[in-house]
């Protein structure tokens, strides 16, 4: 197929689908760094015109990364469901956008379509969508997953409680954990990023989380975000593991730089399934992704970073994860320069993930060398929730003192619950209300009493003053 | 900053302040309705302002060179190919390459061979270098008296790998690079040290380096950092390598100490 256009007295020839996709991508610093971005506005829009005319079927004929060379491409092609694809198989990218926005694209139709879509198809259509399009369509998707709670039901928003500590100190972790629980946070997962990725530290933290969840009968799941090989070793030693975590990317080479491949993930998935620790379901994987990770490993293979990101979702969906989290602003300004780029990337990732059938959360976040601030995060946070985002992070005061970046706070989740009337996962909601942490309408109570469940613990620490 | 306190506070404090002794995290912040109270909100903005300024306010290289000269240390001021801050943040590749003028300066000065080269780069926190570089070097250099050292190389808009090219110019065996780290809200002035044995421009990678991170007033002290660095230098000289193969043997003892305290939630 030729990817040519004549516009405004200039002619463009984009040579390959991979090149066309990169040129059509809304501007972001990582694509300039990679040298694949459009050189000016006109070239970008020309590419978007050409892309809109590409039949969706072309993505099955022209692999952006060769089939022979990349196991992620093989996974995408080999697992493509042609009968699920049938309802849209005659459409171009431009008509696919129209179809997604139309009343024909119901929640039921989108759920049935997901196995028929490839990451490249959804990445392509996202490139010609505005933010309101990304929100509208994602909002129609529904992805429900289960372990000890039910994540992703309509009008619900879950939170990952992230009680990180600079040295993995047990009391330090517990202090942030309790603060978060008392603010109603933690139904997606209680997940710790360990300061040091070794078996001993990981095992110690896994026992801590397991014991807290059992002791206080919290309907949630635990995760220590160590490398998958560390978690495999922990499982082999009989350590309680609810969710297996791993960072994943969209090319075999990038995954190789993370020290993983599909076989290894499969082994970890099977090991976690065999533990049968879920009470209401068996989704037991937690993946994190983020635009730019392949480029930072010099493994983008000429792809733009957003297409690369969508390909990571093919890896994720093979393992029916409980949670997928795009850590959108963590990577820094060389990939997403400012608030505007971070906001769009977060909403693109959510849209692409949801369309592919994934339970997408977003770490609404930024670093101090990015041109972004709390106002930018509030915009993304609000738009993500309006789009039906599955979960966000809960970090004390939005300041992660271990990873040195700013995420979202327990207070941020409560803001969304108020303005959009979003409830936690039903099992966790029941627990919060039973423990009188939340009132019947999912608000913090007016009084300042410590819930009875945690009162003895805090009293033992030498009383609790309010000042 | 004090916020007016009426008889019945409008903001609701959290009655678990006692937990704050266990972590530097922002816990027990209280709430106004269910949102962040004014004081906690402004505390955050203050910390963010300090961190942003650490990234964006340029390092005063003249002042640093003068301060080093006052301690009897010669220095050269060099630049990377990222010639402004915006470009520096977006193009890490350019921050790893010496500007032509810098290469020329080095050619003029690299007349004899050196054992080790000391590079000081502004990195992502000018504040880190302004606060810590001079005092750290004052402590380190007496311990390196047996080494032939060229002038300290100060690099504007430099990334870690730029040290490799500088070390090559002096045919130096060791590269010790001080750099301002990505500032956190609670540590806007954190300095890092990257140590590379036999660095080679364009070939050495992060896997070939050892990093000593978090040097600031609430983090690693200068003395601790010097101790770690000297340990790495000694090991590297013996084994003729640096990087992932070279473990920092001083680290484990520190970490083990901190795990003694138990978890009050399970007590």
Automatic annotation (TrEMBL), chain A:
Question: What Gene Ontology terms for biological process does this UniProt record contain?
Answer: amino acid metabolic process; ethanolamine catabolic process
Q: Which reaction does it catalyse?
A: ethanolamine = acetaldehyde + NH4(+)
Family annotation (Pfam families) = EutB
Its EC top class is: lyase
Tell me the pathway: Amine and polyamine degradation; ethanolamine degradation
Kindly list the GO molecular function terms attached to this UniProt entry: cobalamin binding; ethanolamine ammonia-lyase activity
Q: Which residues bind adenosylcob(III)alamin?
A: 194, 246, 296, 402
Q: Where in the cell is it found?
A: Bacterial microcompartment
Explain how, and how many, cofactor molecules are bound.
Binds between the large and small subunits.
Quote a single Gene Ontology cellular component term.
cytosol
Keywords assigned by UniProt, alphabetized: Bacterial microcompartment, Cobalamin, Cobalt, Lyase
- So where does substrate get bound? 160-162, 193, 288, 363
What cofactors are annotated for this protein? adenosylcob(III)alamin
> Known EC number(s)?
4.3.1.7
Family of this protein: Belongs to the EutB family.
- Tell me how this protein assembles: The basic unit is a heterodimer which dimerizes to form tetramers. The heterotetramers trimerize; 6 large subunits form a core ring with 6 small subunits projecting outwards.
The family database entries (PANTHER family) matched by this protein are listed as:
ETHANOLAMINE AMMONIA-LYASE HEAVY CHAIN, ETHANOLAMINE AMMONIA-LYASE LARGE SUBUNIT
Functionally, this protein is described as follows: Catalyzes the deamination of various vicinal amino-alcohols to oxo compounds. Allows this organism to utilize ethanolamine as the sole source of nitrogen and carbon in the presence of vitamin B12.
The protein's name: Ethanolamine ammonia-lyase large subunit
Question: What organism is this sequence from?
Answer: Methylovulum psychrotolerans
TrEMBL record, chain B:
Q: Which residues bind adenosylcob(III)alamin?
A: 160, 181, 211
Cofactor(s) this protein cannot do without: adenosylcob(III)alamin
Q: Which InterPro entries match?
A: EutC, EutC_C, EutC_N
Residues annotated as transmembrane = none
Q: Which GO terms describe its cellular component?
A: ethanolamine ammonia-lyase complex; ethanolamine degradation polyhedral organelle
Q: What is its EC number?
A: 4.3.1.7
Q: Report which reactions are catalysed by this protein.
A: ethanolamine = acetaldehyde + NH4(+)
What keyword terms does UniProt attach to this protein? Answer: Bacterial microcompartment, Cobalamin, Cobalt, Lyase
* Signal peptide start and end residues: none
**Record localization:** Bacterial microcompartment
Key word Cytoplasm present in the record?
no
- Could you provide one GO biological process annotation from this protein's UniProt record? ethanolamine catabolic process
Q: Name one GO molecular function term.
A: cobalamin binding
Q: Annotated pathway, please?
A: Amine and polyamine degradation; ethanolamine degradation
Concerning its family, UniProt says: Belongs to the EutC family.
Summary of subunit composition and partner proteins? The basic unit is a heterodimer which dimerizes to form tetramers. The heterotetramers trimerize; 6 large subunits form a core ring with 6 small subunits projecting outwards.
Q: Which PANTHER family match?
A: ETHANOLAMINE AMMONIA-LYASE LIGHT CHAIN, ETHANOLAMINE AMMONIA-LYASE SMALL SUBUNIT
Job description of the protein: Catalyzes the deamination of various vicinal amino-alcohols to oxo compounds. Allows this organism to utilize ethanolamine as the sole source of nitrogen and carbon in the presence of external vitamin B12.
What is the name attached to this protein's record?
Ethanolamine ammonia-lyase small subunit
Q: What is the lineage of its organism?
A: Bacteria, Pseudomonadati, Pseudomonadota, Gammaproteobacteria, Methylococcales
